[in-house]
Amino acid sequence: AVRVDALRGLLGHVVVALHVVVAAAADFAVGADGRDFAGLGISAANLTDNDVAGLRIGALANVSDGNLAGVNVGLVNLVTGETDGLQLGAISYSGTFRGAQLGLLGNWNGFASAGWQLGVMNYNQDKFSGLSTGVFNLGEKISWIQLGVVNTATEVSGVQIGVFNACDEICGVQIGVLNIIDASPVPIMPVLNASF
């Protein structure tokens, strides 16, 4: 079987760099007062230890060590729990996500998530159901569509459309210049590759 580990390794370094930024943003939350937040928050950095409901606009960061039901707009958006809504910024992270992540540099979800991602790099550590649109789309279990220059996943149930598409196994179609399905009898195909 053809392995795409080298590409995953290189992109993994980018993920590690994003992880450092997210971890640094999480450290800001140490001084938060521990109360839930509801309403409108406009600040250089909005930091809470608990749940958030509403709209937060943070010039530098929006950090919540809880859940978000609403909208985060900021350079870095970090929600350790569940997000139901919109994250708009340079880098967005959510534990579990349902909604839209529009991150200029990247979007990252730690657990099962669903919705739409638009960013230079979209990374899903667990299952993602929805549309990932970016230069680099990386994931474990992808259900629906990866649309980008480079798309990689462990399992795909749907479509990968890009210049380079790679996965271990797929129940669906790859459309691109180079398509790799490790578990396929014909693992490498130009233009179109499929497995059901």
Give a description of the structure.
With 196 residues, the chain is mostly beta strands. The protein has one helix at residues 5-28, and strands spanning 37-48, 52-64, 68-109, 113-161, 164-170, 172-181, 188-195. The chain contains one helix and seven strands. Strands 1, 2, 3, 4, 5, 6 and 7 form a seven-stranded mixed sheet that branches. The two termini are 17 Å apart.
Would you kindly provide a brief summary of this structure?
The protein is mainly β.
The portion of residues forming beta strands comes to over 45%
Which consecutive residue ranges, at least 5 long each, have pLDDT under 50?
Answer: 24-33
Q: Work out the radius of gyration.
A: 17 Å
**Strand-and-helix sequence, N→C?**
HEEEEEEE
Largest sheet: 7 strands, mixed
Q: Helix share of residues?
A: 10-25%
* Number of DSSP helical runs: 1
Shape: elongated
Which descriptors would you attach to this protein?
single chain, 196 residues, mainly beta, 12% helix
Which helices and strands appear, and what pairs or packs with what?
Blueprint: H1 5-28, E1 37-48, E2 52-64, E3 68-109, E4 113-161, E5 164-170, E6 172-181, E7 188-195
Parallel strand pairs: 1-2, 2-3, 3-4, 4-5, 4-6, 5-6
Antiparallel strand pairs: 6-7
